[in-house]
Every structure is written in C-alpha cells, then in structure tokens.
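ok so for the tutorial part 2 we go from a plain amino acid sequence to predicted structure tokens. step 1 is just haveing the sequence, like this:
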Amino acid sequence: MKLWGGRFQKETDTLVNDFNSSIQFDARLYKEDIQGSMAHAAMLADCGIISQEDGTAIIEGLKEILADIEAGKVELTAENEDIHMNVEALLTARIGSAGKRLHTARSRNDQVAVDLRLYLKKEILEIRNLVLHLQKVIVEKAKQHQNTVMPGYTHMQRAQPISFAHHLLAYGAMLCRDVTRLEDCLERMDECPLGSGALAGTTYPIDRMETAKALGFRAPTSNSMDGVSDRDYALELLSGLSILMMHLSRFSEEIILWCSWEFKFVELDDGYSTGSSIMPQKKNPDVAELLRGKTGRVYGDLMGLLTTMKGLPLAYNKDMQEDKEPVFDAVDTVKMCLPVFAGMVETMRVLPENMRRAAGKGFINATDCADYLTKKGMPFRDAYTTVGKLVYYCTEQGKLLEELSLAELQQISPLFEEDVYEALKLENCMAQRSSYGGPAISETQRQIETIEAFIAQRTK
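step 2 — the prediction. this is what the tokens look like for a chain of 460 residues:
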C-alpha cells in the first residue's frame, strides 16, 4: 500500500508506477532529504506537536538510515516513487508508529523544494570554487605572457596589437562575472520553503524560523504558495551555468583555432589531445571541441525547464518533477568541464614567435599610424584617410607600413618624421595602449592584481 493510498481501492498500474517514479534521479537528494526531515522532527518536538521521545526516535532512526545508505546497505525502490517516500517508509519500518508522525505539518511539495535548494546551495559553492581555480590558471598563464605580442581580432580579421596576457585576462574578467552570478543566485536561493505544506501552510503551531535556521537558510520563504511552486532559483542557476559555458565555449573555439596549422599560436599537451584513427599526423583538440558541444547541452537544460514552467498555474504541479533532471545534468556537466578545461589551459604550450609573426602582418599598427598623424596636428578623420591610402600603397608594393622609406611616407603626408618608426613598432604600439583596461604591461598587471584579489577574497 502506498503511503498516500487511503483514498484508493486499487493498486497503481505497473506502467504508471514506473512513469510516475522519480527515484532513479532524485535518489541523489537522500542526504538533503534526511537533513530536512531531522530539522522538521526537531521543530515538531520543540513546538510540542509531537513528543520529545518521538522526535528523538525519528532523528536517531534517520541518522541510521543515512549511514546505511552511504554504506550501500539500503535499496531504494520505485515502488515508493521518490526519495521522500523511500526514506519515510524505511523510517516507519525501523521505528514503528513514531515514524508515521514525521510527516505531520508538511507535504512532499515543501520537502522536494527544500531538498533541491539545499542540494544546489552546496553545488553552487563547489562550482564557484572550480571557476576560481580556472581563474588562477588563467592569471598564472597571463603573468608569463605580458610581453608576448599577438594580433587582436575583430570580425576574425587582424585588428590591433595586444599581448597574450591581455587576451587571457578578458576571460578572467568574464569568469569574475560568472562567479558573482553564482553568488547572486545563491543569495536569492537562501530561503527555506519547509513549512509551506502543500501550498497553504498548516494549522499546526510550527516554527518556520527554527527549521530555516537549523538548515542554514537566512529566512523562510514569505509566501507558502510561492514556496512550493517557485523554481526561479533553478532557472537562474541554469541561466548562470549557460553563460559560464558560453564563455568556456568561446575560449574553446579560440583554442581550436590557435592549435591549427593556420595559426599555431599554441600547442596542446599530449595529455589533453587525441589522435586520428586513420591519419597518423593528427593531434586533435577534442577536449575543447567536446566542451564547445556540451555548452549546447546545458542550454538545452535551461530551455527545457523554462518550457516546463511557462504554463503552470499555482501551486505545485507534477510537471515540476521535470526540474531535477535538467538541473542535475547541467550541474554535472559544468563540474566535469571546468577541471578538464583548466588542465588543458594550464598545460598548453604557448608559441610566442608565431604570435609575433602573425602580428607583423595585417597592418595592425595602422590605427597607431593614424594616431601619430593626429598627434602631429592632423584631424583624426583626415589621418584615417591618409593611412588608408598608405595601406593601399603597401598592398600594391607588397610592403608593411614600417618597411616604407621616410620619402615614401612623406609623399603621402609631410607630417611624417623619423620618429614614426618608433610609433609603428608593434611592441611600442602595445606598450602605449595604457588606457584603463588596455594591453600595456602596467594595465595587465593591474588586471592580474584585481583578479587575484577577487580570488583571495573568496578563498580565505
């Protein structure tokens, strides 16, 4: 007989039982479910709703069940549908009628809501720590390459000279936002729905503040209907994880390009590459490619839950059982991706000579040439046109700007003087870009220190 079976005269069809069951995926919430039940039982006893003896028996029984589950001594069954009913059935079988008092003044609706919040609070901190580790890897790599000149790109065309450190630190800045998004989500998630009941609270004199405090929440949820039917926190987390994966996917795309013979800016370590089954020369960036692919998977988890929730009336609906699989999948995927991505970046070999060679082509010092003329008194738009003519002349002659003679330069503008060659030197072009956030060493050093302080604040 089901724990909820009093109203029914017939056993649930086997197909329906399997269809309805969620134990195959919500079993991972066993610890949070038992934690929530222990807090609930203690509160019931403290409020005089059940006896202290029954409260103690329930808590001790739950502790034993937790130990047995973790020791692999317990078999959770689909017959009991979900982790909540499995734990309650085990408890009642072990301690008798006292176990039947545990569900006083609560519903599975507020149970599942508190379990998922407890679980995700823990997972968010784990994911945040993985992101912080990746930031450390990026910062250490950036420290080594503040003088490494490379072309910066727009539209995948060589645009202006930057350092490899500057490029890496762009991802460091993105990851700072990813961390604060996770922290913001955690802050909004930090309310306890336990005590909301099925939707309308309870007539028992419960103390929701006590259970919220016992479970580590800053407060109870303020509305019982919202408490059981809200999944904003899950959607917000999936959104944050999707943005995080998007950042990792962009980085992966660049690593894939940089590994190609067309770029050859980096070479991945053998431990983070694979070969071809037919082409012996191949060294494939499969880690980066897989991560790029798994980004779509996390997006799908977000869109799936958004679609599930969009038409649901208040309060709880069985559709909401579909919240756990996408959330678990996204959490598992991100936790799998972050360490392997960090390892790939940490072990990859940077090839500064190839970066510098690429930076020497594509006229990426053209803006600096225009700035040179502007500083000599020419209006910027006129300087822009003048340098455009110079670039056209260079392409016709097969030369770079810095390869033109002073006579050739002065045919275009008499403002050019001998000091133009210093202005066109790529290392100087980069060094002079010292505006806040730029690639000059003074600025990349500031960015490194900012990110290191950000990490240190969270890893005390």
